[in-house]
Design a protein that fits this description.
Blueprint lengths: L6 E5 L2 H4 L13 H12 L5 E4 L7 H14 L4 E4 L3 H4 L6 H17 L3 E6 L10 H25 L6 E5 L21 H15 L9 H5 L11 H17 L11 E6 L7
Parallel strand pairs: 1-2, 1-3, 3-4, 4-5
Antiparallel strand pairs: 2-6
């Protein structure tokens, strides 16, 4: 097994914040929290973790507001994900999103941080208007994969990089991994992403997450959204877009400082 990182900071939007993996007390957990726990379980030393992600953020604010704060914490490992909210907007420059991503990776790696770059899961099978999301997501994924290939070939950065392609994880597209809004992963989906990350980092995946068990179950497949779905999720989303509001307005990072991780937290 590779040496385990003992300090980890996550930046991003709702995917990284953990929306969809809801806890009984109203908090959200998510794949990044689970990765931190997995690192702590595998480490002989204490592991510290911070999560600066805020739901609803486009890539520009993630890079502009979270990246510098994350670097200032001087972690050994930083995860970067963004662009999902950008491609959901009526107009977006995929080239701009890809370049912002590449620059964020270069900036973090130049600071001596190992960068964990990961794509979000692909929700297009389950969403109304999913074909447009699929088309834009494929285009962005192609740009990012090309950028990763160049970076790995040139190896110009001091911190190094690991890429986890969740968008290309076909099994993760199945509805059993998604929450009721069909846009955010549920607990099982977040666990599968965490498993993808830990595997890429050479860290064992805790058996109690049941990742292999859930993956072995019969897929749910595609189902047509109900009228209640449009009322409860689609219309409020359209309302926020029309009024310039975001689900993350007024929210702050759920864990702004590096904090010791309890390796005994159960899934």
């Amino acid at each position: 097994m590779e040496p385990v990182f003992t300090s980890y900071v996550a930046i991003g939007d709702s995917f990284t914040e953990g929306v969809g993996d809801d806890l009984p007390d109203g908090r959200v957990r998510g794949w990044a929290d689970l990765v931190a726990v997995g690192l702590a379980v595998a480490s002989d030393e204490p592991v510290r973790y911070a999560n600066l992600a805020i739901r609803g953020r486009k890539l520009g604010p993630i890079v502009g507001e979270q990246l510098g704060a994350a670097i200032a914490l001087r972690p050994q490992l930083m995860s970067i994900n963004g662009g999902g909210n950008d491609i959901m907007r009526p107009r977006v420059s995929i080239d701009d999103v890809a370049e912002q991503t590449a620059q964020a990776v270069r900036t973090a790696a130049a600071a001596g941080i190992h960068v964990l770059l990961l794509s979000g899961a692909n929700p297009s099978d389950n969403l109304p208007g999913g074909r447009a999301v699929q088309r834009r997501g494929d285009e962005l994924a192609e740009r990012v994969r090309a950028m990763v290939a160049r970076a790995q070939a040139e190896t110009p950065t001091s911190g190094g990089m690991t890429f986890v392609d969740n968008f290309g994880d076909a099994g993760l597209r199945d509805l059993r991994y998604w929450s009721l809004d069909r846009l955010h992963l549920n607990a099982f989906g977040h666990a599968r992403v965490a498993s993808n990350v830990l595997t890429a980092l050479g860290v064992p995946v805790p058996a109690e997450w049941r990742v292999d068990e859930i993956a072995a179950q019969t897929p749910v497949g595609r189902t047509r959204p109900s009228l209640a779905y449009y009322r409860d999720y689609v219309l409020p989303w359209i309302g926020r877009r029309l009024t310039g509001r975001s689900s993350g307005d007024g929210r702050s990072a759920k864990l702004s400082q590096l904090t010791p991780v309890d390796p005994d937290i159960a899934f």
